[in-house]
């Protein structure tokens, strides 16, 4: 039998996981978030790197109480378990999503020069992207999964009207520029640690973190509006509130100055509901290809 007609054994775990995740999507949102919080707390209670990193990063921003650490860990768990619901019950989730700041988006799009949305690891960034598609086409950038086991889930989750995903490479950047020049919107995570030496050491909550310059360079190259956005998780499974923060113009005219302004705007947005930031993300790591750290 030809190899291409065979069903490799390694596909079975992926399909089983996809089936399980789709089953989870059928559960009420409140149940998923509550279960996620319990799992998040359970993981946090285990001594190790995850617990230390969450505490260290939160302390950098001035959040230094055991109660805050536990709340942040619980919200991280809620973020993970709500994802299946957002992916495969999108219409239902969007019906539970609202914002009293939509005029910020409408005004920016009406200018006809494109919009760059920046969504940090805050709240439910999956619902934020889907909510934005209601205003028109949105191209987002993603990094391929490190595990082949997750590929069927990721591919299925990306499938949505008005939402287009491009890889985080040169091809993806070119697609971003084309979309912006058409007056459309693009979205990316501004607090990811950049790869391949593309970054600057800039303050983030008072300490230097390797900061991507891609968002700043795109904004300066295309002259678009820049809006930071995040989906706040509401208690009791009541859905999400979308927040917007548009950078004032004229924008700083160098990538370094604009990247710093983006970091500062992110801090302001995160402080609106800080327990929902992903403090366990290794934001302050030193990649091997990074420029020299200011601290030596």
How is the secondary structure organized here?
Layout: H1 11-24, H2 29-44, H3 49-60, H4 66-88, H5 90-94, E1 97-98, H6 102-110, E2 115-118, H7 125-132, E3 138-142, H8 151-157, E4 163-167, H9 170-181, E5 185-188, E6 200-204, E7 207-211, H10 214-222, E8 225-233, E9 240-246, H11 255-270
Parallel strand pairs: 1-9, 2-5, 2-8, 3-4, 3-5
Antiparallel strand pairs: 6-7, 8-9
Strand residue content: 15-25%
The termini sit apart by 60 Å
How does the major sheet shape up? 7 strands, mixed
Radius of gyration: 19 Å
What can you tell me about this protein's structure?
The structure is a single chain. The protein is α/β, with parallel strands linked by helices and 296 residues long. It contains 11 helices and 9 strands. The protein has helices at 11-24, 29-44, 49-60, 66-88, 90-94, 102-110, 125-132, 151-157, 170-181, 214-222, 255-270; strands spanning 97-98, 115-118, 138-142, 163-167, 185-188, 200-204, 207-211, 225-233, 240-246. α2 (29-44) packs across α4 and α10 crosses α11 (255-270). The termini are far apart.
Keywords:
two-stranded antiparallel ribbon; globular; alpha/beta; 296 residues; 16% strand
Summarize this, please?
By secondary structure, the chain is of the alpha/beta class. The chain has helices at residues 11-24, 29-44, 49-60, 66-88, 90-94, 102-110, 125-132, 151-157, 170-181, 214-222, 255-270, and strands spanning 97-98, 115-118, 138-142, 163-167, 185-188, 200-204, 207-211, 225-233, 240-246. The radius of gyration is 19 Å and the shape is globular.
């Amino acid at each position: 039998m030809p190899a291409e007609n065979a069903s490799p054994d390694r596909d079975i775990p992926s399909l089983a996981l996809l089936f399980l995740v789709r089953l989870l999507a059928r559960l009420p949102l409140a149940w998923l978030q509550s279960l996620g919080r319990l799992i998040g707390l359970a993981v946090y209670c285990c001594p190790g790197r995850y617990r230390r990193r969450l505490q260290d990063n939160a302390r950098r921003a001035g959040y230094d109480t055991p109660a805050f650490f536990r709340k942040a860990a619980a919200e991280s768990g809620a973020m993970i378990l709500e994802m299946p619901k957002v992916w495969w019950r999108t219409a239902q989730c969007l019906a539970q999503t609202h914002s009293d700041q939509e005029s910020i988006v409408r005004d920016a799009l009406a200018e006809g020069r494109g919009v760059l949305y920046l969504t940090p690891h805050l709240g439910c960034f999956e619902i934020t992207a889907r909510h934005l598609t209601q205003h028109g086409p949105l191209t987002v950038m993603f990094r391929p999964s490190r595990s082949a086991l997750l590929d069927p889930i990721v591919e299925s989750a990306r499938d949505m009207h008005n939402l287009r995903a491009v890889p985080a490479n040169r091809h993806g950047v070119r697609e971003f520029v084309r979309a912006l020049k058409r007056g459309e919107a693009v979205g990316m995570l501004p607090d990811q640690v950049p790869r391949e030496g593309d970054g600057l050491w800039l303050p983030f909550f008072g300490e230097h973190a390797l900061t991507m310059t891609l968002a700043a360079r795109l904004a300066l190259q295309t002259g678009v509006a820049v809006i930071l956005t995040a989906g706040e998780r509401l208690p009791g499974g009541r859905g999400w509130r979308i927040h917007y923060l548009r950078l004032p113009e004229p924008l700083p005219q160098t990538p370094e100055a604009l990247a710093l302004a983006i970091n500062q705007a992110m801090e302001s947005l995160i402080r609106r509901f800080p327990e929902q930031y992903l403090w366990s993300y290794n934001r302050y790591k030193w990649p091997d290809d990074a420029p020299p750290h200011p601290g030596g």
